[in-house]
Structures are given as structure tokens and as C-alpha cells.
Backbone:
């Protein structure tokens, strides 16, 4: 299927969809470094521009629209979150484009905090908006560790099927492939990765924050259990030492950008562009590639039904 990608970032979701057999025909993000990373690894079809300044006629017709609209205002980690947070309004741009382009399907990704924002009224409003735009809407929280990602990352997927399509063509959420007994550990994901200081190491982006490790039972300041999936790879800062990178499974330092990207299931040869802080943020903001692939496989199943 032909897909338009909004708020694409470095392209984690897009790469997973491509791996599942789809084609991204147009993409957009406002962050220059993310767009350069996307171009380097995925393609030149990404437009670096404020989405609110892009007209519907600039966006090609497509089968599917996907996007992880910015979620900082929705995050449960943001103690100042509010329904009128300006960042929360960016979903309306996603809505504007879906309403105008009328794709067969849409898939939106967000943090689980969106479910409880304003006592649940925000998710109800979003569902109502998309229903009014002509879509049957469903949403669900997923732990990506249940899909082979070496990370306990909880994210909400909001999916819509255009109401004029038969109900048997409704998008169905992917079934888990893993449970706690077979989750992929962070040690497994990073097996064979040398230390960044190893003179023989030629890995791209294998640099890391030297911010001191202090275990204070606080996000980014906890020991990493090597036998479990990684804690959530973060995009936000910790207020003192830049982006809050998760500790390496041996807990002797913070994970490098390369290691964080492997936990997000980016390929080893996927190269990020920008400052160290920018690259950490790009990795932390991404949808794990493998989870994107699972969503893409579900869409692939619908392709034959629609044809």
C-alpha cells in the first residue's frame, strides 16, 4: 500500500512498514536533523516543514496515513500536562490531513498518558473527531516487549478504517509474539557490541553521554537488569546532564546512541545525524522498527482483501 507519514522523525515506524512490504510515498517532519537522518537511510521523499503550513494539495493521495504526533504534552512523566497544552493540539493537524485526504486507513501512535489525560476526555474527543471524519476507530495500549522488542515500552495505537469500507476489512491489531517468559533481554540485544573505546570498533554513532551514573530510583537513574528488556528509551532530558540515556546492562556507563538504537530495533547500519543530544532524542522519539513491522504486516493482510 502507498503510505503518507506525518511527524516521521528519524523513520522508525516508516522503516518497519517498508520492511513489511509497503511504500512510503511522502513524509514530513519539522526537525532538520531527523529529516537528514531519514534522507540518509530511507529516502528523499521527506519534507522538512511545519505541518501547519502544508496544504492538502501538497500531499499525495494514499491508501494509509500514519504518524506519531508529538506527545510531550500527553506524557505521564510531564507533571504539568494539561488538555490545553499547545503541543497536544498538533494532533489536529493529523486530523485535518486525514479528513481532507480520506485514506482507507490511518494509524496514530502515542504515549499511554494520552488515555488518562483530562480524566480520559482527550482520548474520547480524539475518537469522536475521527469518527465524525468518517472512520471506525479503535485504540489499544501495547507493550513492545510483547512483540520481540528488547524494551518495555508502552505505547497507544489509535487506528481508523474508513466507514464506507466493509467491516471485514477493519484494521486488526497485531497479536503478541512474546510473553514475559520469552521476552528479549537487553543483554541479548547488545550481545557482541564492543565498548566504544575499543580501537577496533568501527560502529557508527557508538558514542555516549558521560553524565555520571547515580542510582536514585528515578527514571534514568536506576540500575538496568541485564536479564530483562531495557527500560523505555527516552527522548526527554533529565534536567541536568542532557538527554536521559538508560544505563548499559553492565551498569558501568550510559548506553551509547548505537546501543539505544539497537534496543529500538534499528538496523546496525542505520546512521543518525546531528549532535549527540539530537541523536539520542531521535532514537528516543522513534517507534521501534520491529513493532512498526508488525503493524505493517497487519496492513499487508488487508491489501489482498481490498484488491
Residues:
Amino acid at each position: 500500500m502507498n503510505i503518507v507519514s506525518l511527524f516521521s522523525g528519524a523513520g522508525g515506524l516508516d522503516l518497519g512498514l517498508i520492511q513489511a512490504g509497503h511504500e512510503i510515498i511522502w513524509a514530513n517532519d519539522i526537525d532538520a536533523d531527523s529529516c537528514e537522518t531519514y534522507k540518509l537511510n530511507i529516502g528523499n521523499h521527506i519534507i522538512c516543514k511545519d505541518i501547519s503550513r502544508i496544504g492538502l494539495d501538497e500531499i499525495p493521495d494514499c491508501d494509509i496515513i500514519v504518524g506519531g504526533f508529538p506527545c510531550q504534552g500527553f506524557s505521564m512523566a510531564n507533571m504539568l500536562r494539561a488538555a490545553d497544552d499547545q503541543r497536544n493540539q498538533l494532533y489536529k493537524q493529523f486530523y485535518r490531513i486525514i479528513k481532507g485526504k480520506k485514506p482507507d486507513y490511518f494509524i496514530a501512535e502515542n504515549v499511554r498518558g494520552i488515555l488518562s489525560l483530562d480524566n480520559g476526555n482527550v482520548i474520547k474527543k480524539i475518537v469522536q473527531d475521527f469518527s465524525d471524519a468518517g472512520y471506525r476507530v479503535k485504540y489499544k495500549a501495547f507493550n513492545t516487549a510483547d512483540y520481540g522488542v528488547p524494551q518495555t515500552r508502552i505505547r497507544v495505537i489509535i487506528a481508523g478504517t474508513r466507514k464506507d469500507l466493509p467491516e471485514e476489512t477493519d484494521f486488526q491489531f497485531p497479536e503478541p509474539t512474546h510473553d514475559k517468559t520469552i521476552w528479549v533481554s537487553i543483554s541479548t540485544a547488545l550481545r557482541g557490541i564492543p565498548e566504544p573505546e575499543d580501537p577496533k570498533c568501527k560502529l557508527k554513532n557508538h558514542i555516549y553521554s558521560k553524565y555520571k551514573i547515580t542510582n536514585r530510583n528515578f527514571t534514568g537513574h536506576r540500575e538496568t537488569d541485564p536479564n530483562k528488556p531495557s527500560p523505555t528509551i527516552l527522548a526527554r532530558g533529565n534536567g541536568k546532564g542532557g538527554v536521559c540515556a538508560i544505563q548499559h546492562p553492565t551498569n558501568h556507563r550510559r548506553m551509547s546512541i548505537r546501543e539505544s538504537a539497537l534496543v529500538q530495533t534499528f538496523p546496525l547500519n542505520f546512521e543518525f545525524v546531528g549532535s549527540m543530544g539530537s541523536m539520542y532524542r531521535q532514537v528516543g522519539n522513534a517507534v521501534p522498527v520491529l513493532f512498526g513491522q508488525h503493524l505493517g504486516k497487519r496492513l499487508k493482510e488487508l491489501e489482498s482483501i481490498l484488491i
